[in-house]
Amino acid sequence: MENEDVVVQEITKNMKEKIGKYWGDPHKMNKMIFISYVLDPRHMFHSLSFALAAMFEETKGVKIQEEVKTYMKTLFSEYIKMNGDSYPSSPSSTSSSCPSSLSPTSSPSLCSSSSSFSKFMLDLKRHKSGGCIDLKTELDKYLGEDVEGEKDKFDVLGWWKLNSPRFPTLADMARDVLAIPISSVAYESAFSTGGCILDPFWSSLTPRLVQALVCIQDWLRNESTTPVKIEKNLDNLEQLELEMVNTGKESCIVDI
Predict the structure, then answer these.
(1) Helix axes of 185-197 and 207-223: crossing angle, nearest 10 degrees
(2) Is 214 left (phi over 0), alpha (psi -120 to 50) or beta?
(3) Average pLDDT, integer, range 153-163
């Protein structure tokens, strides 16, 4: 921005404003950017904590990391609700009553026998886990695993597809989060292209003709490095469209 060239100054100013939109205030940033990073099994919170400390200093980085953890747990709980699942139940609720699969007319001895077996399995599970019941969620188990090693052409979505039986809810969440575009540039570019064709002077163009113009211009630009000024041929295109309408072949415009 301190360059002597005025053009460079203006370009840099616009770039800085764009960067500030995404990375200006870390506490106002969309936490989904960090969630997608955590859902990469090569990084998780191991790499995120290091990156945040490097970008925003140690104290502020730790605070942002805690915010991301809270946000991720909230998001995970929403997916739990959507899937109709629930968190692991407490030990008291697991062995307190007769299983629902038994009918009300079941004999007390059968219910007692089933309850005893449930208690036995609960005690066995407690024994295996060192005296306490494992109440870890999918998210806790995923974050507790070791990170994957760096590999060339690592397929993150492929990893989640392969591990979906272990983390079904997290796999659904990863599928949605990792499909979010990181920037709105592609959409802005598309609308900019449409704006160059549908200006105030040509606002009477039909939607089908606008679609045809956008497609043709895009195809021609890919075939030639010379800018194509499609506006010069608008009269011919309008005449062609009129002829197609009169002959009942309007759909051919789009096919061109």
Answers:
(1) 110
(2) alpha
(3) 90
51/3 Cα distance (integer angstroms):
30
Residue 248 · residue 240 · CB < 8 Å: no
| Biggest distance spanned by C-alpha atoms of the chain | 92
Give me the sign of the Cα torsion angle 10, 11, 16, 18: positive
Spatial separation of the C-alpha atoms in residues 71 and 36, rounded to whole Å: 12
pLDDT band at 130; cut points 50, 70, 90: low
The residue type found at 199 is D
CA distance 32 to 42: 17
Contact 138, 169 (CB under 8 A): yes
Q: Which residues of 216-234 are buried (b: 16+ CB within 10 A; e: fewer)?
A: bbeeeeeeeeeeeebeeeb
Residue type at position 61: G
